[in-house]
Amino acid sequence: MYRIGIDIGATNMRVGLFDPTDQLVAREQSHTEATSGATQALEKLVRMIEAVDPERLASGIGIGAPGPLDVDNGIILDAPNLPGWHGLRIRDELESCVGKAVFLMNDAKVAALAEAKIGAGAGYSSVQYITVSTGVGGGLVCDGEVFAGSHQHASELGNMIVDVSLKNGTLEDLCSGTTLKRESRVLFGKDKTAADLFMHYDAYHPEARRAIARWLQHFGAALTSIIQVIDPEVFVLGGAVILHNPWLVEELKTVVTQRVYGTMKETIQLKVASLGDNAGLYGAAMLVK
Amino acid sequence: MYRIGIDIGATNMRVGLFDPTDQLVAREQSHTEATSGATQALEKLVRMIEAVDPERLASGIGIGAPGPLDVDNGIILDAPNLPGWHGLRIRDELESCVGKAVFLMNDAKVAALAEAKIGAGAGYSSVQYITVSTGVGGGLVCDGEVFAGSHQHASELGNMIVDVSLKNGTLEDLCSGTTLKRESRVLFGKDKTAADLFMHYDAYHPEARRAIARWLQHFGAALTSIIQVIDPEVFVLGGAVILHNPWLVEELKTVVTQRVYGTMKETIQLKVASLGDNAGLYGAAMLVK
Questions:
Q1: Domain coordinates in residue numbering, chain B
Q2: Which of A143, B144, B145, B272 maximizes the CB count within 10 A of its CB?
Q3: Does the keyword Glycoprotein apply (chains A, B) (predicted)?
Q4: Residues of A in contact with B215 (CB under 8 A)
Q5: Looking at domain B120-273, does it have CATH number 3.40.50.1000?
Q6: Contact assignment for B229 to A232 by CB distance below 8 Å
Q7: B147 confidence band (pLDDT: 50, 70, 90)
Q8: C-alpha–C-alpha distance, residues B86 and B162, integer Å
């Protein structure tokens, strides 16, 4: 069965055609232009679908999109990074345009599905994927299925409380790429990025060392709480912050090992995601039944 | 099918016989005397089993015991409240004494199973039970099955990190009955209990108000994080601290509603446990297959 996967991000939209052996055989990428409105975006998506699948081989289309979503009804609700798309009934609209079944899921959850099935989490029974880039998101995959929760809100990890004493003490407040960029700018100048912070860390700049040490403590605390709640077999960590600094994962393991109960220290497994930018595209195609 | 449930606590052991309609038809209770050693405890358990089931009707025995446990091998590892029992192979020992299949599970998880199946969580697809007494424990039940996690450590909620800025910032450090008792003693004298703290709260004592307000913020933060990780359909809260002060549950709902993402505020459900002291006994019997 041929399938189409679509990965909608704030910056880029990607459309891929997968053959019956799950190989990516055609791929299109384009700017999202999220402010230009839903009609134009849909027209562009339809053109991209025709470009990757001119012979109309695909049985269906899976979409990973930033939340919050109404998954049951295939609607993008009020995703902050897609301002022109609020309320877009993307499933029904696209189904009526292309005449194929369309499936919608949160972008981090489809990436989790791909990493769990064919990426760094392959072979593990339960995989907690976490992505750290502009924000913090995640997806839990148990026995090959996304654990969605009772209201499709499972693994909305960015809003976990890490430091209750702070006004802004959530995992996303403390550990997102946006936060690292802000800290970099405070320390090193207003044109700096998170990458500059890590560069100064490598050069043993004391403030940069402290900032990353705090990041490790905060992120490690969230990982500890996740272990105490669901005890996943493995964590797979991805997103730009992790993929550009994969050594963070070993450091996180040290922090978590110090924090969990004694009998749990030996079973902690943390891995770096292995599918890179394509995780969302692969996972979206996996939604097609 | 008749079943026997055993609830082993630091203070008391309870043994109950359930008839084929799941009614509790006989019940024995005795002091645990956890320091007297495993041999004496086993002998006492065997006598209690004979007392509730003299005609040997039961097909099997389920045990809820404080952890950490080696569930696969039926061993009590190093439960801090059962000092004489460390390493006790309770499943094999009891099976050889009574000639029936024995099943072992963490005490909070069996209570969760009972609350989910016949208690306050009945009818919900996923139930996060949390007990707050001497310590803080829990159990997650999805579609009638305990979600144990990859290493049987799911819902060891006491070690969730609530305030990373504190040396002792776990949920149990901040919210257990032991902590409330300690705060009561600091404020009101060394013979005081958690109940005295709540009494002074009712009398609008400002320090008592602040202590309970802190407890609500801390516990609410943990509930928020649990929602973000697994999005359970309902929380069922039990244990002495909650059962003696059930109004806390409505207050917690207010705190959690302020903290979760916008689209999740309307779906939060928190309930008070309904099986009281017998939850562990009922749930233990449910382990018998």
A1: 3-105+278-286, 120-273
A2: B272
A3: no
A4: none
A5: no
A6: no
A7: very high
A8: 30
